[in-house]
Amino acid sequence: MTNSQNSSSALLDLNNKLDALLELVARAVPAKPQKPDMQSADAFIWQPMPLGLQPVTNVNRIDISLLCGVDRSKKLLFENTVRFAKGFPANNALLWGARGMGKSSLVKSTHAAINEDLDGYAVKTPLKLIEIHREDIASLPDLMAQLRQEPYRFLIFCDDLSFDGDDTTYKSLKAALDGGIEGRPENVLFYATSNRRHLLPRDMMENERSSAIHPSEAIEEKVSLSDRFGLWLGFHKCSQDEYLDMIKGYVTHFNLKVNEEELRRQALEWSTTRGARSGRVAWQFIQDLAGRLETKL
Length: 297
Known about the structure:
- With 297 residues, this protein is an alpha/beta fold.
- It has two domains: 38-235, P-loop containing nucleotide triphosphate hydrolases (Rossmann fold, 3-Layer(aba) Sandwich); 240-292.
- Helix content is 45%, strand content 13%.
- It has ten helices and seven strands.
């Protein structure tokens, strides 16, 4: 083999190695998220790597009029959201309390109700809802930075937010809610739901208190997270009458044909077998009832 052939072979081998190296680098460094088309939908899901904001054209929600037993929370959250949508000051909100009482449903239905009547509420542009998953909270500052220059107003929503053990991602949430040196973007509001009022399990707080030299200081940083939410809305277990009102509201809304006394008997039996009364249990009963009546919801 001539020197020229040896050089060509070596150069080809080097090029192949460089191509392989570039491919490995490309895999290791995710592509920059594409700028989303905010006009494509009113709701999005945040996926930080590698896709960014993904539009959701069909949001899983119910009409706000069907949320019973939470009238005070519904009124306060709706008013807070309308103020924000109109460009006025509003508070981040923490919806906490009993399972299945409509915390996440209230956020989604409030967003929908406002967008369905923009003129009636004097709102200039549609309000955008962005869901961020609990495991992506660390990327919340990146999301807020991306939204800062957009002409729309955004509700960032995290469902079932809580922190356990040595999880330190709550620090990212605290920084995002405070906004750091720039401040929280004026066009962004954060809503979260949780079963815990302080977003931390009681045993974790007790462990911090018992093992620290200064107990009050040991848990101050973690407990103070909930203080970043200016609006606290508590959701509590519903009474039997409130549970039955939920059932009747669904029956009327979906025009289900059933005898009132039989409806009451079946609804109470359903809640007894599940050992609970809540909005979620009421909805599950309605799905079962509609199925037996062969009626689509």
